[in-house]
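B., you asked whether I could sanity-check this one before it goes into the benchmark set. Here's the sequence:
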Amino acid sequence: MSIKAYYLAPEGNLLHDLAGDEIIRAYQSKQGMLWLDVAGVTEEDTALLEQGLRLHHLAVEDCASSQIHPPKIDDFGDYLFIVVHGVNYAVDSEVVETAELAVFLGEHFVISSHNFPLYCVSEVERMINADSLLMKRGADFLAHTLVDTLIDNVLPTIDRMSDVAEEIEEGVIRQPRPVTLDGIMKLKRSTLKIHRVMAPQREVLNRLSRGEFPLIKQEALIFYRDIYDHIARVEDLNQTILDRSDNALATYLSAVANRQNETMRVLSVVATIFLPLTLLAGIYGMNFDYMPELHWRWGYFIVLGIILLVMSVVTWRFWASGWFAWGKRHVTWTRPFTVNGSKIRGYIAPKRKRPEKQPKQGGEGEKHV
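And here's what the prediction gave me:
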């Protein structure tokens, strides 16, 4: 069986590694506090959950299925079935992947189910092994700790995505390349995946935090409200990264278009310079017998002079039009960024140092002791 079981007996003893029969007895006693964590539901686990613990078939089927289910909350009367999502750190992928956590929340039990290893489960397990206070506070606080840790573990991914967005923005400005475009699209897919699971989770946590379900005590509502605030923050940061990726994509396309324009400009300059030269070479390359310039003594040098003159005039014309950067004076921004202090609320102007008074020089006839 792939189940970890922790049971806080009514006497205060913390038991773990319970067998299937012991789990059923602890569950049916409706005393103490029971936490089961199922990592990858097998057929044996399904039988225990459905037949031994009498959990609803549809909820257990969602836990056993490998398909991704949207965040939701179902009320079965004696317990709640909650589905939330976090970041899947167990897979190596260039795009952020999400992982699903299903939680059964009852008055005296919490059952968590997941198909991938989750750090939130490991953290809660560590907290319980260190101190059984978390189990003593009740099932609603234990479920809160699981969901809260799951959402908090999304923030490191958001921070990393923000760093990637900054790297992409620098790469787009310095040298836009196809690999930069690939990074932009992967970042966009990551933000969309997080948005797809975080947006509906806000409604789930909103329902849990407004006292809709009697299983969550009044003193625990504010803690669920705190998770709601964390999700709202994650969603806002994720939306900011999505906007930055959209801006980076627009900048990349603009930079590529500018590079193509520069290439076309170079080709246009070369073609414009050599077109008149091609015309001269074509005229004097004709094989007519009666061409007076062919018998001039200085005709060859005159044609070379005309060619150089045409090249110089055309090159100067392009330079005067600003098509060439060399020889132009570059103006740089050297002034510091300053803000008028009078427009800042609460601004206090720094005091200027008064010049030190110079001692008066004694005039003629004055005596100094």
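One thing to flag: DSSP finds ten helices and seven strands in the chain. Otherwise nothing jumped out at me.
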